[in-house]
Amino acid sequence: MDHLQALKLPSMAKFNAGFLRCNQSFEMECVGPAKGSYEHRMSKMLARSRALFIREYNNKLFNWLVIFSLTMVVIGRFVVKLLLLEAAAWVMFIFLETYTRLFWSSESLYYNPVWHAIVSSWEAIVYSPVLDLDRWAIPIVVMMSFLAVYWRCIGARGRIGRSVLPLYNGSFRSSSGRPRTD
User: Which residues is 127 bridged to in the sheet?
Assistant: First the structure.
């Protein structure tokens, strides 16, 4: 249960799957007259762990969304240079920060139906049967950053010859073809 509490990317589905795996091993391996009392202890531990996990889960997810929105602002401004992406990220960041200030706490956000849609999307992305992002998030982010640096720095060498700005090294001439006299 301690391992499930310390997930980098929190996932309720992963928490439930881990607890079911723990419960199944308990059911199969625990025998004897004390099984009933230990089963009662396990159910109490589940209730406490689930309440703590849900509280921490919502707070971590909120913080990850704030970090994601700020990261998308930087990517939209400096990497991709797409105004629409940057504007959408700013709107997301402003919404997340002002909603908690207007309605006193972020806990009021957790009962909103939009929050439940965000949580279900998060669960589908983080705990998918194809790729477990809790294990692969850091290597994927490192590879994506290397690709972004390559694309912005090394991949741009092919575009140096066609500069957008006029240069005085002969690339900007008048239509008559004569040299400037000023």
Answer: 132
Q: In angstroms, rounded to a whole number, what is the distance separating the alpha carbons of residues 106 and 119?
A: 14
Question: Which tens digits make up the pLDDT trace of 149-176?
Answer: 787 777 655 555 555 555 555 544 555 5
| C-alpha to C-alpha distance for 40 and 30, rounded to whole angstroms | 13
Rounded CA-CA distance 167/176 in Å is 18
Asked whether 72 and 82 are in contact (CB, 8 A), the reply is no
Q: For residue 141, give the amino acid letter.
A: V
Of 26, 22, 50, nearest in space to 36 by CA:
26
**CB 9, CB 133: distance < 8 Å:** yes
Token pair of 101 as six digits: 């200030």
Residues 6+ apart with CB under 8 A from 109: 62, 99, 100, 103, 115
Distance between CA atoms of residues 4 and 21, nearest Å:
12
Count Cβ atoms within 10 A of the Cβ of residue 90 and give its class: 0-12 exposed, 13-18 middle, 19 or more buried. middle
38-95 tens-digit pLDDT = 778 878 888 888 888 888 888 888 888 899 999 999 988 988 888 999 999 999 999 8
